[in-house]
Amino acid sequence: MSRPSSWNRREVMQLGLAAGAWAAWPGPSSRASERVTSSSQAAEERLVLFQGDSITDAGRDRQRRGGNDPRAFGFGYAFLAGAAMLAALPDKGLRVYNRGVSGNKVPDLDRRWEPDALNMKPDILSILIGVNDIWHKLGGNYDGTVEQYEQGFVALLARTREALPEVQLVVCEPFVLRCGAVTDKWFPEFDQRRASARRVAEQAGAKWVPFQSVFDVAIKQAPPEYWAGDGVHPSMAGHALMAQTWLETVDPFAG
Predict the structure, then answer these.
(1) DSSP secondary structure, 228-241, as one string
(2) In sequence order, what are the beta bridge partners of 170?
(3) Which CATH class is domain 45-250?
(4) Which of 9, 37, 51, 149 has a CA-to-CA distance to 113 between 20 and 30 Å?
(5) What is the value of pTM for the model shown?
(6) How far apart are CA 189 and CA 181, in angstroms?
(7) 124-128 vs 207-209, strand pairing mode
(8) Rounded to whole angstroms, how far apart are CA atoms 12 and 240?
(9) Among 164, 101, 172, 175, CA closest to 135
């Protein structure tokens, strides 16, 4: 199946409707999902792994570890993007996983990176991390600096490149919208952290998914609360916009 040259509003709506119906289905048991995954492996299979914090976690069932399992994905952009890839590429043996964990910062990723990323040997590894590194600091529960965020992120991706030299890295831009929990005290430090994430992506040769840039355009069409009620966690519309942006940037349908 060929990928459309661009995603229009109707296609995004269809994606959301299909995903909503799938999310309402109880799905196979986790054991059955593992069996389906192992029995459908193909020589050209590709493993796609989404990593990050609560925005990626999106309420997933962490007891379910199988690939291509809707209950293991939560309700967010990773689910929507994964569903679109699986629907468009049924003959490619894709296995798509979500290992986002709510509340995570860069040091938390580092602590669980071996089992939750490197040992899985993904072909595409997408990472969205950064909002908790400042949010927890503002709340007095963390004292990490911008420099520590960047250094830790650089080290994490260098470690990944060393273990998985052929992996396609994807770094997603941390984002916030000025509403809810996001006040003036987030700035200018949050923008400094976004700039750090972009430098990390460039240094690692990773694809850069411009989430903040896309939301900056979106709030000209609807208020920030429409896209993320608390300024951090996306709404249904926000997750759909993220999935669309991720798919257009990473372009897993190419070739």
Answers:
(1) -TTSSS--HHHHHH
(2) 126, 207
(3) alpha beta
(4) 37
(5) 0.84
(6) 15
(7) unpaired
(8) 7
(9) 175
Q: Say which residue the tokens 């119906």 belong to.
A: 21
- Per-residue pLDDT 10s for the chain (255 aa) are 333 334 444 454 355 444 443 443 334 333 334 433 443 444 468 999 999 999 999 999 999 988 999 999 999 999 999 999 999 999 999 999 999 999 999 999 999 999 999 999 999 999 999 999 999 999 998 999 999 999 999 999 999 999 999 999 999 999 999 999 999 999 999 999 999 999 999 999 999 999 999 999 999 999 999 999 999 999 999 999 999 999 999 998 875
Q: In the chain, where do the E strands start and end? A: 47-52, 95-98, 124-128, 168-172, 207-209
Q: What is the DSSP string of 50-75?
A: EEESHHHHTT--TT---TT-GGGTTT
